[in-house]
TrEMBL record:
Residues 209-336 form the Schlafen AlbA-2 domain. Residues 145-172 form a coiled coil. It comes from Octodon degus. Residues 397-533 form the Schlafen GTPase-like domain. GO terms for biological process: defense response to virus. Gene3D superfamilies: Schlafen, AAA domain. This is Schlafen family member 13-like. One of its GO terms (molecular function) is tRNA binding. Keywords: Coiled coil. InterPro entries: Poxin-SLFN/SLFN_N, Schlafen, Schlafen_AlbA_2_dom, Schlafen_AlbA_2_dom_sf, SLFN_GTPase-like. Signal peptide: none annotated. Residues 93-207 form the Poxin-Schlafen/Schlafen-like N-terminal domain.
Length: 628
């Protein structure tokens, strides 16, 4: 992708999103010596890459060092500051970004943007990260660009207003506006000046700047360009903050009318430039109208000693019903795992305002008994319970899940057991989750020649996906990378995993002729920081909970055909159902809540076997049924 003349390239053959931003000068000492133009250009591409990765489940920014240094270098203060501006102010830089130098390359490891990182005390949770909101409002006598949190609050307020759910508050609000408007009409001033046709050069305006009045002087050069820029910022600011007057041709400290000398401007063409600039402002409606920004332009003749000296321009802007942007917000994403795309205004607002509960929340609430006794008992964490049921973590012990599949695989393929053992041996304990194809489990295309895939979740190791091939295959690594990347992104977007994460990959080859000699093809060459490893049971459990949601995360019953199964046909009146074929061919695991009975079911299709347990006074049933 080209941004100006700096290019961002997505690196292929990696199990992670790796954005190559090209050559960058690193280290505060070296960056200080750079030309400002070059420094800003580098900063811009790093920030853009960071924003795109934050919004796309995380990844790695790869830079080639443009300077020589005989000692390891840090990023540089300007780059750090620019990255810090992307994340919530309550967070430290290393919560989202870690750096590591590797020979001539320098890597920034970017964690996924997560709204969970914001304080829980209020519900403002922007869902995406942006370099700029491109949303301006008036604050006192200034025009400010809203930060992400302010932008989110403003969008929410405008949406509520449009939906008229704020009836009372709104009438309060409009009362204040009307009172302010009255003020303006009476004492004054901007309105009277706006009505007049001529004014004396040097006249001191009888009112100061305010939230609804801004004074600007004409610049001496490139008048039209300058006016366009002013319009782009101030007109949305007034429209988003109850309307106002923009005076162009007034000295802001002394309030003296200076105008613009008539030799320097053509008032008609300037009016056209202004009208055109306003018509280009992107507007977003929560209401059902398609209203545009309403404004009037007034050109007032400025006289000096009874002669026409020049012109004063005033733009009066009405309050806007919804939201006016200066331009599309500056926010990027990696789409379809290969393109870096700038979001347009509609996509951005949709992402910001997405009010669907996250899948983990929906999952949790579906599994929660509706009539919890609110007073005394501890809330049972059903997500945790289900995870402990399906993927129990037991420190000090190795588990191969599902056991039946592992037994099948190891008896079918001689040498597999030894091969796997060699791989997992360096770690002391953990879980290995087998599937005949993790690709199929995640909705990807399966590959011929793959005996099985196994996901390793082990103590002091990063999650690692193994693809075991029957024979050597050059495309094995790509296949394994593709699954790993998809899995990682689903864990973040669907499973709500908020930790630092990269699923490493390793391709193994089991050739029966060479009796379990493994052929390791090149795996990820980027050395990730230690924080990408599982250091404790808690971290492993939250990973497995996210994994479980990804695997169980089908929201409807549609996947199921009840007539196939007599047990399921009785369950037509439950509200929601999570169904998934676990990575075991021919078996299904479901978690459901039956609406009119306080029963929570864990189903593992195998055989009929009811297990009842008591959870906070309610009956909970774990049931195994035969499926096919
Ligand atoms: Zn509207």
């Amino acid at each position: 992708m080209q941004i100006g003349d700096c290019s961002l390239v997505l690196q292929p053959s990696q199990p992670d999103l790796v954005l190559n931003v090209g050559r960058v000068t690193l280290g505060e000492e070296y960056r200080q010596k750079q030309q400002k133009f070059q420094r800003d250009k580098e900063k811009k591409k790093v920030v853009l890459a960071a924003c795109a990765l934050l919004n796309s489940g995380g990844g790695v920014i790869q830079m080639e060092m443009a300077n020589e240094a005989d000692h390891p270098l840090e990023l540089g203060l300007d780059l750090e500051q620019a990255l810090r501006e992307l994340i919530p102010s309550s967070d430290v830089l290393q919560a989202f970004f870690e750096t590591r130098q590797q020979g001539r390359f320098f890597h920034i490891f970017v964690k996924s943007w997560s709204n969970a990182a914001l304080p829980e005390d209020n519900c403002t949770k922007p869902r995406i990260c942006s370099v700029s909101s491109s949303l301006y409002r008036r604050s006192g006598t200034s025009t400010i660009c809203l930060d992400l949190r302010q932008a989110y609050d403003f969008l929410k307020t405008q949406k509520r207003k449009a939906q008229n759910t704020l009836l009372n508050e709104e009438s309060e609000h409009s009362k204040i506006l009307r009172a302010m408007h009255q003020d303006i009409m009476e004492s004054n001033s901007p309105f009277q000046v706006f009505q007049s046709n001529k004014i004396e050069y040097g006249h001191i305006l009888p009112f100061p700047e305010s939230h609804s009045v801004e004074f600007k002087q004409f610049s001496t050069q490139k008048t039209q360009e300058y006016v366009k820029r002013v319009i782009q910022e101030y007109i949305p600011a007034f429209a988003n903050t109850g309307g106002g007057y923009l005076f162009i041709g007034v000295h802001d400290k002394s309030r003296r009318v200076l105008g613009c000398a008539k030799e320097n401007i053509d008032p008609d063409s300037l009016q056209r430039v202004i009208a055109q600039a306003i018509s280009k402002l992107p507007v977003f409606h929560f209401c059902s109208t398609d209203a545009q920004v309403f404004y009037e332009i007034k050109v007032i003749d400025v006289f000096k000693n009874e002669n026409l000296y020049g012109y004063l321009i005033i733009v009066n802007v009405e309050p806007f019903c919804c939201v006016v942007f200066s331009e599309d917000p500056a926010s990027w994403m990696v789409k379809e795992q290969q393109k870096i795309v700038k979001l347009n205004m509609n996509e951005w607002v949709a992402k910001m305002m997405n009010t669907d509960p996250d899948l983990p929340e929906a999952f949790e609430s579906q599994l929660t008994l509706s009539d919890h006794p609110a007073y005394c008992r501890e809330q049972v964490n059903h997500k945790t319970q289900l995870q402990q049921h399906l993927f129990p973590v037991s420190p000090g012990r190795w588990q191969y899940i599902p056991e039946t599949l592992w037994m099948e695989l190891s008896s079918q393929h001689k040498g597999l057991e030894e091969l796997i053992h060699q791989q997992v041996h360096p770690a002391s304990w953990g879980i290995l989750i087998f599937s005949r194809s993790w690709a199929v489990d995640l909705g990807l295309e399966e590959k011929q020649g793959v005996l099985c895939d196994a996901l390793l979740i082990a103590h002091n190791r990063p999650p690692t996906l193994y693809t075991i091939l029957g024979d050597q295959d050059a495309e094995g690594q790509d296949y394994c990378n593709r699954i790993a990347l998809t899995l990682k992104q689903k864990l973040v977007t669907m499973g709500g995993y908020t930790g630092k994460l990269c699923v490493m990959t390793k391709v193994l080859c089991l050739n029966p002729n060479i009796n379990a000699v493994s052929l390791e093809m090149s795996s990820s060459q980027i050395h990730y920081p230690w924080s990408y490893n599982f250091v404790g049971t808690q971290q492993m459990e939250s990973f497995l909970q996210a994994l479980m949601i990804v695997l169980l995360g089908f929201r409807s019953l549609l996947r199921y055909q009840p007539e196939k199964n007599s047990y399921l046909s009785n369950f037509h009146h439950h509200s929601h159902l999570f169904v998934h074929d676990l990575p075991v061919s021919g078996k299904a695991t479901m978690a459901m809540k039956i609406r009119d009975r306080n029963i929570r079911l864990y189903m593992e299709a195998e055989e009929v076997e009811n297990v009842c347990e008591d959870v906070s006074g309610k009956t909970t049933m774990a049931m195994k049924i035969r499926e096919r």
